[in-house]
């Protein structure tokens, strides 16, 4: 079956094209305009533009009757103004701080083993969680904005401190960015029966009484069980290592192995204990990082309206209407959420260093007022309230 997408003034045949980053390109419908998506995903990539030139293409005349035509043209100008004012250039001081922070927390966690094992485990978990935010930005090439350096930073940090694989993360995460809240496409959304974020998420899953019971109480189990005890260990000990072995990625395998071994040995060396206890503390830190990371990942979009498989909102409406910004002017919330509290900004400009989100949010507010678009801004505690209430209401519905 032939398939094509539109980028700029050309329609490209992608029928037999295998995207280096996975199957995300085939999430687009035949003939869909993917111009903004391509530009944002590959803003700094010369390789992507070279590959695009090799695909069969033909010039097309785009539909000029799009109701959002003027808004989208204005958005392009808005983005250009941000670029001209340096919002897509890196803040090296911020990058150095982010790197230092990870090593500092890890060091304090190691020293704390001797004095307070509970604090140590918590800090190791926090370190892995903070690493999650850092490597995420490396995957978007928005840390140093040098693709090679950012990918190396991501590779080391996600491997040693988080026991994962950068390419696996990017493959999964880019699918979410391309189609947030789209049923059957957003990998962050279609997670039933483990967790159901929307009221039709179990339509294609045979619902046993056990599954219904699990979903009924998912608002209570989501953080301690689903995020900490199931998803994070599954990622750390199976999903990501499996990808590493399949790719024969020796360097990444060594990063992951070293991360596990060093932390367990620190427990054994600093406070003499059994290997079982050392592994238990290691696992508890992984549990804490899972709660911290996946809990916060769910705050920015899981309770927003879903999109049907056949709907294709443009890039701007996708981001603004199906994600939220959380206390964008609160510096502590920004730090605690790894600067991803400005999720709308991040979805509009994934290649923008996230440290600028707070400033750009103020300008986006004016843009949205101009075009009568609802810009969803909520507080940190409102986000938790909306997310957990959504889990509870969906769980109750699915269990009947």
TrEMBL record:
<keyword id="KW-0560">Oxidoreductase</keyword>
<feature type="transmembrane region" description="Helical">
    <location>
        <begin position="217"/>
        <end position="238"/>
    </location>
</feature>
<dbReference type="InterPro" id="IPR036400">
    <property type="entry name" value="Cyt_B5-like_heme/steroid_sf"/>
</dbReference>
<feature type="domain" description="Fatty acid desaturase">
    <location>
        <begin position="120"/>
        <end position="376"/>
    </location>
</feature>
<keyword id="KW-0443">Lipid metabolism</keyword>
<dbReference type="GO" id="GO:0016717">
    <property type="term" value="F:oxidoreductase activity, acting on paired donors, with oxidation of a pair of donors resulting in the reduction of molecular oxygen to two molecules of water"/>
</dbReference>
<keyword id="KW-1133">Transmembrane helix</keyword>
<keyword id="KW-0472">Membrane</keyword>
<dbReference type="GO" id="GO:0006629">
    <property type="term" value="P:lipid metabolic process"/>
</dbReference>
<dbReference type="InterPro" id="IPR012171">
    <property type="entry name" value="Fatty_acid_desaturase"/>
</dbReference>
<dbReference type="GO" id="GO:0016020">
    <property type="term" value="C:membrane"/>
</dbReference>
<feature type="transmembrane region" description="Helical">
    <location>
        <begin position="103"/>
        <end position="126"/>
    </location>
</feature>
<dbReference type="InterPro" id="IPR005804">
    <property type="entry name" value="FA_desaturase_dom"/>
</dbReference>
<comment type="similarity">
    <text>Belongs to the fatty acid desaturase type 1 family.</text>
</comment>
<protein>
    <recommendedName>
        <fullName>Fatty acid desaturase domain-containing protein</fullName>
    </recommendedName>
</protein>
<dbReference type="Pfam" id="PF00487">
    <property type="entry name" value="FA_desaturase"/>
</dbReference>
<feature type="transmembrane region" description="Helical">
    <location>
        <begin position="275"/>
        <end position="295"/>
    </location>
</feature>
<keyword id="KW-0812">Transmembrane</keyword>
